[in-house]
């Protein structure tokens, strides 16, 4: 199964994020509201015994709840082309701390270390040949976006099935934060 660890977001926050999208950038594939999340660690394809190890490691992790504020827009690019539009998070040491604990737990469960720097974001759209001027206009127009702070009281192990239009995510296990 293909796994990742993420924060699922409260419904009203997802609605607010989804309301940003829809129009305005030709070539953008907006992430459906039910799929919006903040990835803490991508795991990828694992076999059932390792999935059990992962669950065990995450279940024994002791993390604290915190407040998360999503704010600001940005893009990721690959090969000189923008590939993703995202909303960021305000600097949050509790979030970074939790992410670090998850990384440690997953390495203990036998996964190789994640080499990429943690850049908290919620992907809003994947971009297939988005018109650069329209994308830039959109980012500029919404740059001051700031959502109401939300309380985070758990994190989630998701499985994902790749689909043609959008992936289908299933929350496999929720781990409470104290
Ligand atoms: P993204 O939103 O920046 O694309 C499920 O695919 C989640 O895992 C997505 O939120 C995705 O982040 C993240 N992810 C991180 N690395 C990935 C990879 N190599 N392949 C697919 N998804 C990845």
Which structural class is indicated by helix and strand composition?
alpha+beta
Distance between the termini: 28 Å
Largest sheet: 4 strands, antiparallel
Instruction: Kindly estimate the percentage of residues that lie in beta strands according to DSSP.
Output: 35-45%
Assigned CATH superfamily: Cyclic phosphodiesterase
The residue ranges in which pLDDT falls below 50 over 5 or more consecutive positions are none
* Average residue pLDDT: 95
Treating each run of at least 4 consecutive H or I residues as one helix, how many helices?
A: 4
Find the count of extended strands (DSSP E, 2+ residues).
10
Radius of gyration: 16 Å
> Could you tell me which ligands this complex binds, including any ions or cofactors?
adenosine-2'-monophosphate
Number of domains: 1
Shape: globular
Q: CATH fold name, please?
A: Cyclic Phosphodiesterase, Chain: A
| Helix/strand order | EHEEHEEEHEHEEE
**What percent of the residues sit in helical stretches (DSSP H or I)?**
25-40%
* Spatial arrangement of strands, main beta sheet: 3-1-9-10
CATH class: Alpha Beta
> From the coordinates shown, what is the CATH architecture?
Alpha-Beta Complex
